[in-house]
C-alpha cells in the first residue's frame, strides 16, 4: 500500500462480494465505506478533520504504532458519531477551543490511540456516547486530559493521562464514566474531578500521582466510587470533597500528601473501607461543617510528616471510626466546636506524640472498646460544653490517661489506665466528669488527681500500685464554694492512704496537695529553683496611671500604645463590673508581639506587667525574659524541667519569650523545642491566672510559630505589631539620650541625623531603637576624641555634638 493512501476492505453478506479499494485521502475512503468496512491507513501525516458516522473500523498498519498521524491545522482532528472501531492512530490537535478526539454518539471502541495535543481536551465524550477506550494515552499540557460531559459515559481501560494543563480526567453535567487500571499524572489541576448533580465517577485499580492540585476532587452533588486505587504525591490535598459530594473508597491507598490527605466540607459524605492514609503533612482526615460526615471502617491512618492531628473534626461535622488504627502521629483525633461529634469503636490509637483524643469548644466524642497506647495524653476534654463517653477503653503507657478541664463534663466508665507516668485521671480548672468502675494501675504519680475543688464524681473506682497515692484531692483555695470538691462512692485502693471504701455517698475530705502534678511531661520542679519574691520588701507599687504615663513617653509606638490602653480599659472595667456584682467579659491577657528587634517589645512587656499588677490582676507584675537557650535542654526530659522552672520564676508576673519562633525551627525533626511549646501550653492552661505569657519575634516567623501547635494560637488574645522606627523617631531617641546624659545637639546636627537615619540600611542588622542608641554612643566617643585635643574646653565644647561626630554608615 502506497504512502499516504487508505485501503478500504468492503464487506458484504456473502464472501464473493468482498472487495478492496485504495483511496488517496481519508475523507474519500470514509465516503466510500459502509457499515462493517475496514479502513487501513498507510503511514503518514493526514491534515484532515475526520468524522466517523458509520460503524466502520479505522486503523493504522499492524506492527507500526504511531506511524499514522491525524493532525489538521485547526478544529477537531477526529470526531466519532457511530459504533466504530478506531485503533493504532496518533492524533494531534492545535485548537485551544476544541478537543482532539470527540466522541458524540454510539458505542465505539477506541484502542491504542495516542493523543498529543494542546487542545481544550485530549479526549472528550459527551451526550449519548458510551465508548470503550482501551490502552489510550493523552498528553495535553494545555487543557483537560479526558473530559466526559453532558450525560456521557463509557469505560476507560488501561488508559494513561501523562500530562494535562487542567484536570487529568474531568466529569460533569451528569456524566458517569468507569475507569479501570488507568494512570493519571503530571496534571496542573485535579487528577480526577467530578462536578454537578448526577455526575458520577467510578475508578477501579487506578493510580493518581504527581498532581499539582488535589488528587481527587468531588463537588456540587457529584458522586464517586474508588476501589483499589492509589493517590499520592500531590501538591494540594489528596482528596477534596465539598458541596454535598459523596465518595466511597474501598481498599485504597492515599500517601505522600503535603497537605490534608482527605479534606471534606459543606455536607459532603465520605465512606472509607480498608483504606490506608499515610505520610500526610497536615490532617489525615479533615472534616468540616454541619452535615459533613466521614465513616471509616477497618482503615489505617499513620506516619504523619507534619505537626497536625491525624483526624480533625470541626464546625458541626461528624466522624465515625470503626475498627481503625491511628498511629505514629502528633495527635490522633481533635474534635472541636459545638455540634461536632466523633464516634470511635474498637479502634487503636498508638504512638501519639501529644494527645490521642482532644475534645474542645462544646464538641462531643464517644469511644467504645478502644485502646490508647504510648501517648502523652490519652484523652483531654478541654472546656465547657465539651463532653462524651469513654467506655470499656484501655489506656496504656500514657503520661496522663484522661484530663478534664474548664467545665468539661465527660462520662468515663469501665476504663483502665495502666502505667501512666504522671496521673491516671487528672481534673482541674473547673472540670467535672463522672468516673465509674475505672481502674488505675502502676502510676508513677497519682491514680486520680483532682485539684481546684472540682466537682468530679467517682463511683466504684480502684487504684493499685500508684507511687504518689491512689487519690489526691487538692484544696480549691480560699475562694472555693462551700461543698465543692469531688464526690466519691465506694472507691478503693491498695494504698494505705487511699479513699475509704464506703456504701454511702460522701464528699471526699479535701487535703491540700504540696504541688499538683501537671498533666504533661513535666517532673516536679526542684524546690531550690523556686524564686524568692522579686519585689523588694516595702517597695511601693506604681499606679496604672503612672505606668501608662511612662508608656506614653516612649518614642513612637502609637498603635502599640492604643492596643495596651484598650486592654487596660477592658480589664479595669471588668474589675469594676465584678465589684458591682455584674458579669465581666473574659479578657485573655497573653499576647503576641511581632516586629523587628529594637522596637521596644521588652520595654512594653515590662510596663504591661506593672499595669496588670497595679490593677490587681497579677500578684507582682515582674518580668522574666527567656529565649530558646533558657527553655530547651540537651536530652529527653530536661526541656520540660527548664520550661517549668522559667514558668515558676515568672509566677505572679510576665514570662517574656523572645524569638519564640526558635522553639519550632522549620527543619525541626526531633528538636526538643516542641516539647517546650507543649509544656508551656499545658502550664498556661493549668495556671492561667498566675502568669501572663508574651511571645515575641519577627512577624513572618511568629505566624509560623503560632501554626505549629493547635493549642498555641488559642492561648493568645491578640497580636500587637511593633513597626520599625522612622528617621524622625530615631532622631527623637538620640535627643532623649543626649538630654539624659547632659549633651546637646549643635547647629545642623539634627538635620544631619535625619539624613543619616534615612540613608542607613534597613536590613536584618538594623536595630531600630538600639541603632539610635548606638549612634549616640558613637557620637559621644568621637566627640571625646575631638574635645580631648582642646587645652581648656568650654561648657559648649563639652556638651555640643556636631555633624562631624556622626559615625560612617555601616
Mean pLDDT: 85
Fraction of residues in helices?
10-25%
Given helix and strand content, the structural type is alpha/beta
Ends distance? 82 Å
Care to count the β-strands?
A: 67
Low-confidence residue ranges: 13-18, 500-540
Radius of gyration over all CA atoms, rounded? 36 Å
Share of residues in strands: 35-45%
- Helical run tally: 13
Largest sheet: 37 strands, parallel
Broad shape: flat
Protein name: Right-handed parallel beta-helix repeat-containing protein
Family: Belongs to the CbxX/CfxQ family.
Keywords: ATP-binding, Nucleotide-binding, Repeat
Describe this structure as you would to a colleague:
- With 810 residues, this protein is an alpha/beta fold.
- Helices cover 18% and strands 36% of the residues.
- The protein contains 13 helices and 67 strands.
- The strands form four sheets. The chain has a 37-stranded parallel beta sheet that branches.
- Helix 2 packs antiparallel against helix 4, helix 10 packs across helix 11 and helix 10 packs across helix 12.
- The termini are far apart.
- About 6% of the residues have low confidence.
Concise overview:
By secondary structure, the chain is α/β, with parallel strands linked by helices. It is flat. The N and C termini lie far apart (82 Å).
List keywords for this structure.
single chain; 810 residues; alpha/beta; 23-stranded mixed sheet; 67 strands; repeat; AAA_lid_6; ATP-binding
